[in-house]
Amino acid sequence: MKPGQIAAQLYTVRDHLKTPADIAVSLKKVRAIGYTAVQLSGLGTIDDNELASILKEEGLTCCATHESGEALFSKPQTVIERLRKLDCRITTYPWPGTNPPFDTLSNIKMFARQLNATGNVLHDAGITFCYHNHHMEFRRVGGKTVLEILFAETDPKFVQAELDTYWVQFGGGDPVDWCRRMKGRLAVLHMKDYAISAKNEAVFAEVGNGNLNWPAIVSAAKAAGCRWFVPEQDICPGDPFASLKTSYEFIRQHLCGE
């Protein structure tokens, strides 16, 4: 990847994004690490125009956003308007929860139809719509994983992938294999390492501090046409800005080309 394709997922520092003042300070810190782009998620209330101004002042691009399922399914036009203010061209359905439950093929196909419909509206507005996986989509229904069904039942023009490496691994999948499966359909890769703690539990780790095969993952993602490589860490051992810095420095040193 190129350095300009690396973006920080702000969910990592969500506890430092409560107010507009917090957001301004945190974006300055993220830029100082070296990131030139961010993905918006986990922010407190802030006017979109003010946010766009802060991003511009810090020299940061908004590469993508996470939007609520309610907004995406019920009010996609408001999402379009927001992304235009932020000069952003990618958004993501981030979390399905259990509504609908992924328990029957019928429910999964119904959800896929909703994703397709929203993706169609966003596509017509020039916006790429992605689906972000967790581990729940690796449940098997009728002999296939939910994630396989969702992508089979949606149009690649309307629904692309924001693959999360940690959750693919946690669900029993292979991140390299899934990058290959999403060839031509992988807009965003969440780079999230997978480690085992002293308590023998799976934990989130900075990129390079876990067990995932990053050279192979990045190579497969590049071959799939991935646009953005986004370090994220749901839980950090200490200062989340330090974790973002560790991930950034590993990526620049070991995975980046100029």
Briefly say what this structure is.
The protein is of the alpha/beta class and 258 residues long. It has helices spanning 20-33, 48-58, 69-74, 76-85, 105-124, 146-152, 165-170, 175-181, 214-224, 240-254, and strands spanning 8-9, 37-40, 61-66, 90-93, 128-132, 140-141, 144-145, 160-164, 186-191, 193-196, 202-205, 228-231. The longest helix has 20 residues, at 105-124.
Question: What report would you give on this structure?
Answer:
By secondary structure, the protein is of the alpha/beta class. It has one domain (3-252): TIM Barrel. Helix content is 41%, strand content 19%. The chain contains 10 helices and 12 strands. An 8-stranded parallel beta sheet has the order 1-2-3-4-5-8-9-12. A hairpin with a 5-residue loop joins β10 (193-196) and β11 (202-205). α1 (20-33) runs parallel beside α2 and α5 (105-124) packs across α6 (146-152). The longest helix has 20 residues, at 105-124. It is globular. The model has no long low-confidence stretch (mean pLDDT 97).
Low-confidence stretches: none
Find the count of extended strands (DSSP E, 2+ residues). Answer: 12
Distance between the termini: 8 Å
Shape-level CATH architecture:
Alpha-Beta Barrel
Draw up the topology in text.
Blueprint lengths: L7 E2 L10 H14 L3 E4 L7 H11 L2 E6 L2 H6 L1 H10 L4 E4 L11 H20 L3 E5 L7 E2 L2 E2 H7 L7 E5 H6 L4 H7 L4 E6 L1 E4 L5 E4 L8 H11 L3 E4 L8 H15 L4
Parallel strand pairs: 1-2, 2-3, 3-4, 4-5, 5-8, 8-9, 9-12
Antiparallel strand pairs: 6-7, 10-11
Helix pairs in contact: 1-2, 5-6, 8-9
